[in-house]
């Protein structure tokens, strides 16, 4: 992997037809951008916990109380 810093392997499925496609892409250092992101640990935990509830579920008062206790 001389000159390459990574590899991305992906698979895609078209929901309507079930057709699949996949490929591998090599990543060079020039392809990589690192951005500093300032997110407080508490905010990150809250984002992760809310996401874990699922996209179709609104948090209940009990969910929020449990997250706050943590």
Describe the protein in words:
With 70 residues, this protein is of the alpha+beta class. Helices cover 30% and strands 27% of the residues. The chain contains two helices and two strands. The chain has helices at 41-52, 61-69, and strands at 4-13, 20-28. The chain has a two-stranded antiparallel sheet with strand order 1-2. Strand 1 (4-13) and strand 2 form a beta hairpin. The chain starts with a strand and ends with a helix.
- In round numbers, the mean pLDDT is 84
Shape: flat
Uncertain stretches of 5 or more adjacent residues: none
| Contiguous helical run count | 2
The class by helix and strand makeup works out as: alpha+beta
Q: State the helicity in percent bands.
A: 25-40%
Number of strands: 2
- Span between N and C termini? 44 Å
Written as H for each helix and E for each strand, in order along the chain, the element string is: EEHH
- Radius of gyration based on Cα positions: 19 Å
Order of adjacent strands in the largest pleated sheet: 1-2
Largest sheet: 2 strands, antiparallel
Strand content: 25-35%
Summarize the structure.
With 70 residues, the chain is an alpha+beta fold. It has two helices and two strands.
Q: Secondary-structure map with pairings?
A:
Elements (H helix, E strand, L loop, with lengths): L3 E10 L6 E9 L12 H12 L8 H9 L1
Antiparallel strand pairs: 1-2
């Amino acid at each position: 992997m001389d000159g390459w810093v990574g590899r991305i392997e992906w698979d895609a499925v078209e929901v309507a037809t079930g057709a699949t496609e996949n490929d591998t892409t090599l990543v060079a250092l020039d392809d990589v951008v690192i951005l500093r992101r300032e997110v407080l640990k508490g905010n990150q935990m809250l984002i992760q916990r809310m996401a874990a509830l699922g996209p179709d579920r609104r948090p209940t008062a009990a969910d929020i109380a449990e997250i706050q206790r943590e």
